[in-house]
From TrEMBL:
Domain (Endoplasmic reticulum vesicle transporter C-terminal) ranges: 75-237
Lineage: Eukaryota, Metazoa, Chordata, Craniata, Vertebrata
Main location: endoplasmic reticulum
Compartment list: Endoplasmic reticulum membrane; Endoplasmic reticulum-Golgi intermediate compartment membrane; Golgi apparatus membrane
Domain Endoplasmic reticulum vesicle transporter N-terminal: 10-63
Gene this chain is encoded by: ergic1
Species in which this protein is naturally found: Scophthalmus maximus (Turbot)
Protein name: Endoplasmic reticulum-Golgi intermediate compartment protein
Signal peptide coordinates: 1-16
GO cellular component terms, semicolon-separated: COPII-coated ER to Golgi transport vesicle; endoplasmic reticulum membrane; endoplasmic reticulum-Golgi intermediate compartment membrane; Golgi membrane
Sequence intervals crossing the membrane: none
Record's function text: Plays a role in transport between endoplasmic reticulum and Golgi.
InterPro entries named among the record's database cross-references: Erv, Erv_C, Erv_N
Keyword terms of this UniProt record: Endoplasmic reticulum, ER-Golgi transport, Golgi apparatus, Membrane, Signal, Transmembrane, Transmembrane helix, Transport
Length: 256
């Protein structure tokens, strides 16, 4: 029993645990005020020549048809498109959207039904004990939606830090999302639809720290286990001795 208890505690000491905390700060001050974004989305009913990425924010950025570090893969014999892009956004409220705004000739009724494979921010962070919303929109399926509708995804981006046992930090971002689907009109008629990702940053940072129990706590607990084992053994031995003496007296009484 003692060996089993010692083994279980030793296993628990060797294993690491993840402690999380919340604080208000920008954890990645060396990023230059930028966040890396990875987007992968399929539009099975929109030709690649029409698909583009536009980026806007409150610092005045307005980029139509972003093409750096992006790729468009034809789907459905050229009738559809899979857009994959890596780009950066500023750490201010803004949006990026997949649309036909950069196309040479605007289609009359672009079909914006889609499937989001990935939308992630910052470094890729996959740690077994950390469950988070790092790719909350991964798998979002809007293939059966109204083909003339725009889609708004409202994102609240939460800075996230992971610190391992060596003290090395990795910076990523989780996010929550709400979405709506609508057909928009203006005084000139129906507005060309798009897939909007409108984002804002949370002032709260989530930090995950990997740690192991201090060695002094391990020694203290081992001493407590050993001391407790000897104490219990002493009590049991005393009880057995007392019972044995009582039994001897009973036997002597019967003989006399």
């Amino acid at each position: 029993m003692f060996d089993l208890t010692l083994f279980l505690f030793l296993t628990g000491f060797i294993a690491t645990e993840i402690v999380n905390e919340l604080y208000v700060d920008d954890p990645d001050k060396d990023s230059g005020g930028k966040i890396d974004v990875s987007l992968n989305v399929s539009l099975p009913n929109l030709h690649c020549d029409l698909v583009g990425l536009d980026i806007q924010d409150e610092m005045g950025r307005h980029e139509v048809g972003h093409i750096d570090n992006s790729m468009k893969v034809p789907l459905n014999q050229g009738g559809g498109c899979r857009f994959e892009g890596e780009f950066t956004i500023n750490k201010v409220p803004g949006n990026f959207h997949v649309s036909t705004h950069s196309a040479t000739a605007q289609p009359q009724s672009p079909d914006m039904t889609h499937n989001i494979h990935k939308l992630a921010f910052g470094e890729k962070l996959q740690v077994q004990k950390v469950q988070g919303a790092f790719n909350a929109l991964g798998g979002a399926d809007k293939l059966s939606s109204n083909p003339l509708a725009s889609h708004d995804y409202i994102l609240k981006i939460v800075p996230t830090v992971y610190e391992d046992l060596s003290g090395r930090q990795r910076f990523s971002y989780q996010y929550t999302v709400a979405n709506k689907e609508y057909v928009a009109y203006s005084h000139t008629g129906r507005i060309i639809p798009a897939i909007w990702f409108r984002y804002d940053l949370s002032p709260i940072t989530v930090k995950y720290t990997e740690r192991r129990q201090p060695f002094y706590r391990f020694i203290t607990t081992i001493c407590a286990i050993v001391g407790g084992t000897f104490t219990v053994a002493g009590i049991i031995d005393s009880c057995i001795f007392t019972a044995s003496e009582a039994w001897k007296k009973i036997q002597i009484g019967k003989m006399s």
